[in-house]
Amino acid sequence: MSTKLKQVNKLKKAPHRNDNLNDVKFVERLIKISRVTKVTKGGKKLSFRAVVVIGDENGQVGVGVGKAEDVVNAFKKAKTDGRKNLIQVPITKALSIPHGVVGDKGACKIIMRPSIEGSGVIAGGAVRTVLEVAGIKNVIAKQLGSDNLLNNARAAIVGLESLTTKAQVLKKRDLS
Q1: Which regions of the chain carry the CATH code 3.30.160.20?
Q2: Plastid: present as a keyword of the record (predicted)?
């Protein structure tokens, strides 16, 4: 009997924290693939770095970076890293952000403001990709500082992370 119980317990799988992520259909967008070399005593070692934005176009978004000896493995690693770094973004009924926000990462600064319905995503480069994959349809964004694609994407994530809803502010202030 005890061996049978052990076998049954082995079959029971402990719930993982990412089990619900497998149910959701994610969209992956490649921002950049770059060829990088490491100079060693024996010569140059070539590898590829991929920067990927992953999201469900319904408020979840993450940026991932992967590096490998070939492009396919670098892309897979970046997707995995993006899934680990997913954040939840509050989206209004007008498919915009609740309020204006500034995101900083390194020398990059991203200013994002809500926009009226029908205006579309007015942003450039990596920030546009992050906002589209997050499911935000009406927003105005401006990149200031560096043109580094990875830092611009991460600055957009930092800005989106700092967004709060009206309900969250009321709860924080102990109001009904």
Answers
A1: 21-87
A2: yes
DSSP assignment, residue 95? S
Specify the residue for token string 């930092």.
158
Residue of 105, 137, 109, 142 lying closest to 124 (CA atoms)? 142
Residues 6+ away with beta carbon under 8 Å from 23:
none
Q: Is the model's pLDDT at 21 over the cut of 70?
A: no
**From-to residues of CATH 3.30.230.10 in the chain:** 89-165
Q: What fold is seen in the domain 21-87?
A: Double Stranded RNA Binding Domain (3.30.160)
Beta bridge pairs of residue 66? 50
Sequence-ordered list of residues with C-beta below 8 angstroms from that of 35, at least 6 positions apart, any chain: 46, 47, 48
pLDDT value of residue 18: 52
Arithmetic mean of pLDDT, 158-168: 92
Residue type, 139: V
CATH topology of domain 89-165: Ribosomal Protein S5; domain 2 (3.30.230)
Distance in angstroms (rounded) separating the CA atoms of residues 50 and 55: 16
Residue 101 amino acid letter:
V
